[in-house]
Amino acid sequence: MNEEHAQAAADIAEVEAANTAFYEAMERGDHEALSGSWLPGEDLTVSCVHPGWPVLTGRGEVLRSYALIMANTEYIQFFLTDVNIAMTGDTALVTCTENILSGGPAEEGDALGPLVGQLVVATNVFRRTPDGWKLWSHHGSPVLTESDEDDDEETPS
Questions:
Q1: What are the domain boundaries of the chain?
Q2: Range from 26-40, 66-80, 136-150 carrying the lowest mean pLDDT
């Protein structure tokens, strides 16, 4: 394996670790670690699109959105599938499917609210910094599935 190929493989492993750390910080509700996943400062404006939300721009607005999500989510777990990493220079593009299991605030007497499953396809753009790979942009879009009722309506009687 030549030196260039070895460096590319190491970069991909580092990007994958940074991507995993981002999701693990969300699962733990660790806003400080999550904040550390994003590019610092405002020289390169970060952006985020949560499923069903408008575009959020700027580090402050993006991090406030995660604080709000964490404050209203008792439990969240991400199972990432279809992870693909592409790189050019100091920029990495990660696409994946977020298989999300989450629960809201508990109802009377329950330890946890009802659990809900959701599929989201995500694109995470990372930039290389002296402190490692940092998120520049996150875009999550819900995966819409057809219901069985739609299939029934199309069946001739």
A1: 3-144
A2: 136-150
**Residue 71 neighbours by CB distance under 10 Å:** 10
Q: Which residues contact 129 (CB under 8 A, 6 or more apart)?
A: 39, 40
Encode 131-155: b = buried (16+ Cβ within 10 Å), e = exposed: eebbbbbbbbeeeeeeeeeeeeeee
Q: Any idea what DSSP says for residue 58?
A: S
Looking at domain 3-144, which CATH architecture does it have?
Answer: Roll (3.10)
pLDDT tens for residues 40-80? 986 568 999 999 999 999 999 999 999 999 998 889 999 99
- CA separation for the pair 9, 53 (Å, rounded): 35
Taking residue 28's Cβ as centre, other Cβ atoms within 10 Å add up to: 12
